[in-house]
Recover the amino acids of this structure.
């Protein structure tokens, strides 16, 4: 019986999409359904999807609504208890899906599982080994650029967030905590979702024996660009506002001010200071449209646990990214 639906959000880059779909049918041995949600691409009519001898659902939207909207459409269309989200600029290895599936069915408190994402053109280097978040307001990829044999990256571990570019999710939990926030359009939406899951007491897990390759910025282009910097800084404010109760924001205010200042200096030196500030201004201008995660006293222990994690992650970040860089 099929229990998994893979959802690929797509915007242009049809060649990447072909390679991605090919790798799925070549390397996955268990049954799955496939939904491609296209954000009104202009580079192809995508008729090549009909050439596969598989029942692929292709949903074309009337305009580019962004990542969050597209994957929400796919999640709601899916009829299976488990959902896999996958970027179009990826190719998967054997057992990528099988190992994530075996992990998530072990524990009903696990919301998501992700594996080791490897750089497509530097196959000895990690692109992402799950994501973390700290009290500076920084979300970051674990072990980005480290060798794939790096010892710490080859250990099963509970993480703050799974990267939505390649992760499996328990669908029933979406119905409890909500779907991807469509106000985000793109970037940080997975951190927001995982944050909500942790508030409700669910876990996100990384496993090293689930591997795939990732081009990176295949749809939006480049590690840094005006679009990405502006949206990321805006969405960073959204994550804090949505998920931290007022007292927690006050507690972390010194860390947050420092974190945003350092990021501004970083992007200023790269020529994107204006875009970084404009994203922050945009966020504060639109906070009234953002729905905060409802505070419930029964989740107080989870809030305390999250606070301990994001404080600890300041020191982990300094150690891993600066001291042992």
């Amino acid at each position: 019986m099929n229990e998994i639906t893979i959802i690929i959000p797509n915007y242009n880059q049809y060649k990447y999409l072909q390679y991605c779909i090919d790798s799925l049918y070549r390397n996955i041995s268990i049954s799955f359904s496939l939904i491609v949600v296209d954000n009104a691409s202009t580079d192809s009519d995508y008729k090549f999807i009909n050439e596969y001898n598989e029942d692929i659902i292709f949903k074309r939207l009337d305009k580019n609504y962004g990542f969050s909207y597209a994957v929400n459409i796919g999640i709601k269309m899916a009829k299976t208890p488990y959902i896999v989200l996958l970027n179009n600029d990826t190719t998967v290895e054997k057992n990528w899906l099988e190992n994530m599936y075996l992990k998530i069915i072990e524990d009903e408190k696990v919301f998501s599982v992700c594996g080791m994402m490897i750089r497509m053109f530097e196959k000895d280097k990690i692109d992402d080994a799950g994501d973390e978040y700290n009290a500076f307001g920084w979300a970051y990829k674990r072990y980005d650029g480290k060798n794939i044999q790096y010892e710490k990256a080859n250990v099963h571990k509970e993480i703050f967030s799974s990267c939505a570019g390649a992760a499996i999710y328990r669908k029933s939990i979406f119905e409890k905590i909500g779907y991807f926030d469509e106000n985000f359009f793109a970037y940080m939406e997975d951190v927001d979702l995982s944050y909500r899951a942790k508030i409700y007491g669910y876990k996100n897990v990384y496993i090293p024996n689930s591997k795939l390759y990732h081009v990176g910025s295949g749809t939006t282009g480049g590690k840094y660009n005006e679009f990405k910097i502006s949206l990321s800084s805006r969405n960073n404010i959204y994550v804090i506002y949505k998920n931290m109760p007022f007292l927690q924001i006050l507690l972390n205010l010194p860390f947050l001010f420092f974190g945003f200042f350092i990021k501004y200096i970083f992007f200023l030196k790269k020529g994107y200071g204006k875009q970084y500030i404009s994203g922050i201004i945009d966020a504060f201008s639109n906070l009234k449209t953002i729905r905060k995660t409802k505070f419930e006293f029964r989740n107080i222990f989870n809030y305390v646990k999250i606070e301990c994690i994001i404080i600890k992650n300041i020191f982990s970040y300094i150690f891993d990214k600066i001291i042992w860089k």
Remarks:
- Residues 226-323 form one domain.
- The chain has a mean pLDDT of 95.
- Residues 17 and 88 are 5 Å apart (CA to CA).
